[in-house]
Amino acid sequence: MAKLKSDKDFTIEKLKSLPSVSKRIRYNDPKVEGLVARKSPSGQIVFAVYRKFKGKPIEVDICKITDDVSIEMIRNKARAINGQIAMGIDPRIEKHAHKKIETPQGENEDDGILTFGKIVEYYMTDFENCVRMELKKEKSLKDAKATFKNHVLPLYADKKIEDIDATDFEDTFKKDNTVAVYNKILTFSKAALNFAVKKRKIPFNQLFALEKLTAPSGRTRVLKEDEKYNLFKAIEEEEKIIYSDIVWMIIETGARKQNVLSMVWSDIDLLGSTWTLKVKNDENQQISLSKRANEILQRRILTKNSKFVFPSDLSKTGHISEKTSKGAFWRRICERAGVYSKDRKENLTIHDLRRTLATEIYNNTSDLGLTQGALGHKNLQTTKKHYAHLNNSKIVKAVQDVSDENSDILERVKADLENKTTT
Prior knowledge:
The protein contains 16 helices and eight strands. With about 425 residues, it is an alpha+beta fold. The strands form two sheets. It has a five-stranded mixed β-sheet. Helix 3 (about 90-100) runs antiparallel to helix 4 (about 115-130), helix 8 (about 225-235) crosses helix 12 and helix 14 (about 370-375) packs across helix 16. The longest helix has about 30 residues, at about 390-420. It is elongated.
């Protein structure tokens, strides 16, 4: 290994002016570990990373020296290779995977016909490599796979690249999809085509001019007054009390479903009737617990056998996890109550219970600050700025008032169920 005195000597011009050699010599870059310029007796110079991997020396070629490359670009590629080595990834395998993308197998077999399905295949291979290198998130990979599998490939897998038309694409995928789903389809499809352009597989991205759709105004569905009796009755009729307790906690607190499902005992103060919810940026949100919510927790703590309030031995998370498919507890409850509908606008979702509490607090008080204080504003800084003057006792009262109104209906439900049992 020949050492250069400084990184100023590691330039295209100076490397080209190195004297002839009788055998291969590696000149190391003083700036980036493992980066070398390898000169052979033929005069060819190749940039590479020469380091040990799992105790054995390996050499990963980057590219030949030309006037088109810059030292900084080479250094960035070397740093990426060093990052793979640091994560225990063999960069030779990663390089081989990328070569597969550059010269995909099977392309010649199809007489050079390039389809959208093939582009997606190449793109997803690179996506998976990026996830392994922690350049992209696993969640994004799963989202991309599901979007292509469920929505795009069934209609566009065999579509020849030259036949892709932006207007046809928009008409095809807007027709039977929501705005959110269409936007995902467009985002991932454009990304796949951009990848193909970058890899010089296609000359341009036919979808570049398409833009995401603007979502319509937010959902406004709430639990109506004339629906409450039947829903409360269906909740009380639920065979497994853990499921009815979960729904009641969402109704009483207005908390998001996932927060209730993953609720832990250490965040609950039964004496103070508060639940401290850990939210973004290490900040906490205090949720007021109504008398009914407190009673449910006091009953459940008597049989406590987990850190979770709603534990499950069948779930990997350790707590109950809810699906929306047929047979899920929320679906069963809604079907019994007559509030389930295939029409998304009419169907009552579990999140609509949160909106219901917010709406009822506002209807009772005409105070938007109390509403946001009770549920937690999505922008915590805005909440503090505009509603720091709020008295917590007012929030407690606002939540309890709604709970009391629901209790009146619930008492009727219980009385009717009791009469039904005795007759």
